[in-house]
Specification:
By secondary structure, the chain is α/β, with parallel strands linked by helices. Helix content is 42%, strand content 21%. The protein has 10 helices and 7 strands. α5 crosses α8 (175-185). The longest helix has 15 residues, at 22-36.
């Protein structure tokens, strides 16, 4: 019954999804650029692809690609767009892979799930011995969230804003809680980083920034990961 209610909730989010809109799409594309530095081996598992922005960038590569998505609406669209990709409609907890993977990508997944440490422990069992987990999440210490607290728009940095609620987020990680989830899962952190130094909201960026400004601030976030809009980890089996 719990699985059924979770699938229903995911479907509600998919019907009015904001993942692929505006600068969100640019953010996912930049996260692919970051992750592509660390991909290796012959296959990739992508968890929670949503509209498939990252899938579109992964699919042309030489690695075999499998994606697991809980929303049927997204799965139908993914199968139509990417016939060469194996699309599995299920919750992560119910996924039973036929093979182990060199690369497992969790692009903005861990803030959604009920038990992120449990999901990481499960993902760990799907890795090949030399495999890597590549995960990204929004950062509660992002400049725009810190500014929102000072302005009284958020009570504290980890509080849910309008976008968090719409996306179905269950939490907002800071750098310490994000790293701790990996440590508690038994995975070894190889790289911690960030991207997108984000001083204002998506709406303000979309109204006033040029593509050149957005690219510059995406890159600047890599210099200041603790206060970047997005943080990421590359991890492996110990």
């Amino acid at each position: 019954m719990e699985s059924k209610s979770e699938l229903i909730q995911l479907e509600k989010i998919a019907v009015d999804s904001w993942y692929g809109r505006g600068v969100n799409a640019s953010m996912v594309e930049y996260s692919f650029r970051v992750f592509s530095r660390h991909l290796r081996g012959e296959n990739i598992l992508e968890l929670g692809p949503a509209e498939g922005i990252m899938t579109a960038l992964l699919a042309p590569r030489n690695e075999r690609l499998t994606v697991v998505e809980g929303a049927a609406t997204f799965c139908e669209d993914l199968r139509r767009k990417f016939p060469q990709v194996e699309v599995v409609h299920t919750l992560f907890e119910d996924f039973r892979p036929k093979e182990k993977f060199n690369n497992i990508i969790l692009g903005h997944v861990l803030e959604h799930v009920e038990d992120p440490i449990g999901i990481l422990r499960l993902v760990k069992t799907w890795l090949k011995p030399d495999g890597r987990v590549l995960a990204a999440v929004p950062n509660s210490r992002s400049l725009h969230r810190q500014a929102a607290v000072i302005m009284g728009l958020l009570p504290f940095e980890e509080a849910m804003n309008e976008a968090d609620i719409h996306h179905g987020h269950r939490r907002v990680f800071n750098p310490e809680t994000f790293r701790q989830a990996f440590i508690q899962s038994g995975l070894k952190i190889e790289v911690f980083g960030g991207y997108w130094l984000k001083p204002v909201s998506n709406r303000q960026i979309e109204q006033t920034w040029t593509p050149e400004m957005l690219e510059a601030f995406m890159q600047l976030g890599e210099c200041y990961p603790d206060i970047a809009g997005e943080i990421y980890i590359v991890a492996s089996n110990p």
